[in-house]
Amino acid sequence: MPFLRLENLTKRFDGLTAVDDLSLSIERGEMLALLGPSGSGKTTTLRLLAGFEVPDGGRVWVEGDDVTGVEPVARRFGMVFQHYALFPHLDVGENVAFGLESLGVRGGELARRVARALSLVDLAGFERRRIAQLSGGQQQRVALARALAPEPRVLLLDEPLSNLDPALRERTRREIRELIRRVGITTVFVTHEQDEAFDLGDRVAVLRAGRLEQVGTPEDLYATPVNEFVAEFVGRSSSIPVTVLGPSDRGVRVLVEGVEWDLTEGVAPSQLQGTALMLVRPEALRILAPTPGALMGIVVERRFTGSASLYTVATDGGTSLEVSGPPRSVKAGDRVGVMPSRRAGGGVHLFPGRPA
Amino acid sequence: MIRGRRVGLLGGALFVLLIWLIVYPLVLVLLGGFHGPEGWTLDYVRLFLHRRNEAYALWGSLWISLATVALAGAIGIPLAFLFWRYDFAGRRILGALVALPAVLPPLVGVIAFLFLYGESGFASLLVQRLLGLEQPPWRLQGAGAILLVHAYSMYVYFYLFTRAGLASLDAAVFEAAASLGAGRVRTLQRVVLPLLYPSLGAGALLTFMTALASFSAPYIFGGGFRVMTTQIVATRLNGDDQLAMIETVSLTLVALASLWLLRGTRGVESPAGGRKGVAPALVPIRRPAVRVAIAVVGWSLALVLLLPHLTLLLVSFVPAGTWTTEPVPPAYTWRNYLTLIQDPVRARPLLNSLWLASAATIAAVLIAVIAGIVSVRRRERVGGAIQGLLALPWAVPGTVFAIALATAFSVHAPLAGRFILVGTLWILPLAYLVRNLPITSRAVLAGFRALDPALDEAAATLGAGRWRTLRRVTLPLLRPALVAGASLAFVTAFGDFVTSVMLYTYDTRPISMEILSSLRQSDVGVAAAYGVVLMAVSAAVFAVGAERRNAG
Q1: Helical ranges in B263-395 per DSSP H
Q2: Which is more confident, A343 or B348?
Q3: What sign results for the dihedral spanned by CA atoms B194, B195, B201, B207?
Q4: Angle CA(B124)–CA(B125)–CA(B126) in degrees, nearest 5?
Q5: Helix axes B193-213, B241-262, angle to 10 degrees
Q6: Residue A73 and residue A86: Cα distance in Å, rounded?
Q7: Do the Cβ atoms of A278 and A290 come closer than 8 Å?
Q8: Are A216 and A225 in contact (CB under 8 A)?
Q9: Secondary structure letter of residue A334 according to DSSP
Q10: Exposed e or buried b per residue across A316-341, where buried means at least 16 C-beta atoms within 10 angstroms of its C-beta
Q11: Could B3 and A74 be called an inter-chain contact, meaning their C-beta atoms sit closer than 8 Å?
Q12: Kind of pairing, strands A238-247 and A274-280?
């Protein structure tokens, strides 16, 4: 039995459906990312979990207990808020003690557990600091310590890194991952950044317009997106309308802007007929000199990303393609050809598409 | 949002309470004017329309208020520009002194003017001696005297609002105008004034409504000149209750109509969404002649503005019956202050005002906190209505509420929600409470709106119930707003004259009534001593407020 289960959750606000029949299972100790653009219902889902919103339909189960109607006060879910919501009139120690006091912890035991929670987030000895004296990163760690101190059953994080400087984000991300692994707490967090979701989440649930599009490990999502939305939202890709000609010995044969390409991809060819949409990862394409069998186009932009460069090619057919390639192989304004790379494997996906 | 049927019930109860305290008495007055001994009638309306002095009084209220706005604006706006756009020696001290008329409660300001410019006031006698006149050089009476007191006490609104408006301007706006080739005059006309319109509009509205409701100045200085507030009280004293009600309705209509007409002065929203850059730098004044001129004008002005305060202080040391025709009192004593504390009859009003104002303040804060929980925290459906009800007494002159409460609570009809409170201890705290609700709830609701709702949710995820959240999180964070709301309410109630004059009893006589009766007995020293007490309490409250603003 999963540790935490969301069963057909539905929430409407003034006739707008924010969360639509959402079901998810989370194992004990797992970290699940809720990923989606704004308005996808990920924050509402988190608030339904915390108990701040009452679902219009569906249930929430923890360890086999139905907690759907349980008030947030009694739910014993820890939460780290987007802007931390630290109590500004209390010092660091009083903030961390707040939840423990609700459990009736007093005296020396209280002091010990506050100290333990603070040392967990590397803030040992910070008890008497004022909140206003802390940096953003320290405030975030106090918020984590405060949420973890009463030993909640589930930890909820609302956009945990959005309030930090970009420079601090990556480091904090590592720290949070390590801390949560060490505590071993079941965690659900909300983010709109794919990097964050992939880096922190054991599994990622992609939401759109209140619906769950796909849930899986980062590798699954990248390699086998179930639809165009997930493919586009997760990682870089370009989309081109194609016509499916039929199966080939290696996979499937498509017509792209008048050129025939032989593709190997995950969707069974029998499912697709006629027009389709092809999504291609930059690394599944390569740039070469203009040759027959390649899409012709002009390099319009080159971005250096370290080990490789990302080229934007405007094809003669009017499509914009992102292609990964060795740095400095071509420059903006060059006329080039684009072909699937030899190991295009999981980088090309065909979806039943809009007509070309 | 956290579920809670109890909060919904609380909201409903508060709504009913406010309807009963605020709307119901006003409706009873409205109806009362159309109800005579023989049933429904328009006789009193006809009487009102036919009597010429009624029209005069209404017109008097209106033009006095408009003239007050013009005068107060003409004084307050240039002063704000002088002190908050230009830099010169003594700017800070003078800028603070200029706001000092605000610490004089209306009645206290009026008696200070009496001691200063009245028939035997310092200034009058001084001018009379200097010019060798038989008579005092002027008579402090009629519309001119009212306007003088109004201009003195209400330019502060314009001054403070303009100052706040100037301080909120972004320096980049001036720089942008300059870089686009606009000179000083064009920048003022096209950029600065339009951006100040919201502040100026708010100042004008506050001044107009205060002047329309003004009672102390017309009551003491009006003489034959009547405005509607004094007319209502006179009619009521004559025993023409129904006519007084019609008058009350007419004044209320004028107040509400004015509010409606002036509501459009909101001005443009800042595209920056409330965020601002750097406050504009002050323009230093370098020419020595101008510097000297400003210093002289500034300090003389400050002296003129401070004269009423100083006069009050001086007179408060004058023993009874010793000051008759001398320009300066011949003898001084501490006795007046001792009398206030030691003489049980004299100390009574002080104690009365203390407990009356405290009770009203506590109740107002309590109601405001409940309103905040219901309308801001939980966003109950009645929340909007509650906020509207709480703001309503601001638009209605104090005299109107005095009449309304006197009408509603002089009848015993428990089923109709009416009890005899007039003549009891409870009518004055109730009147103060109703009058204080707008200021208190405004401060407290603003405090609630500034609270991050996530703090409540954080407390809930940490297992804190409603009471613990309220006690440990909400109330401590609201403390500045509560202090601000409570102190403003206390000061207003402590010095209240306009409602007290109609509702007090001998046992509950507040300070203002004692000042009046001391004056009537020519016991100017004691009257002034009471005035000084009121002034000191106001000053303390304003000082605390100013300190917190600076600290924050």
Answers
A1: 288-315, 335-342, 344-371, 383-395
A2: B348
A3: negative
A4: 90
A5: 180
A6: 17
A7: no
A8: no
A9: -
A10: eeebebbbbbeeebbeeebebbbbbb
A11: no
A12: antiparallel
Structure tokens at B537: 């309490």
The pLDDT score that the predictor gives to residue B271 is 45
A-B interface: how many C-beta pairs under 8 angstroms? Answer: 72
Q: Could you read off the pLDDT of B190-221 as tens digits, one per residue?
A: 888 888 888 898 889 999 999 999 999 999 99
- CB count in 10 Å sphere of residue B129: 10
- Give, in order, the Cα–Cα distances in Å from B137 to each of B258, B311, B388: 37, 19, 49
**CB contact (8 A) between residue A102 and residue B457:** no
Supply A164's token pair: 């930090």
| Spatial separation of the C-alpha atoms in residues B119 and B524, rounded to whole Å | 14
Cβ of B460 within 8 Å of Cβ of A150? The answer is no
ipTM: 0.81
- pTM passes above 0.80: yes
Q: Which of A50, A86, A89 sits opposite B461 (nearest CB)?
A: A50
Spatial separation of the C-alpha atoms in residues A188 and A167, rounded to whole Å: 24
The residue written with tokens 């700017």 in the block is B91
Mutate to test the interface with A, among B3, B456, B461 (most CBs of A within 10 A): B461
Structure tokens at B42: 């328009």
Contact B459, B471 (CB under 8 A): no
Neighbours of B313 (CB within 10 A): 16
Nearest CA to A288 among A340, A232, A349, A231? A340
The answer on pLDDT for B273 being more than 60 is no
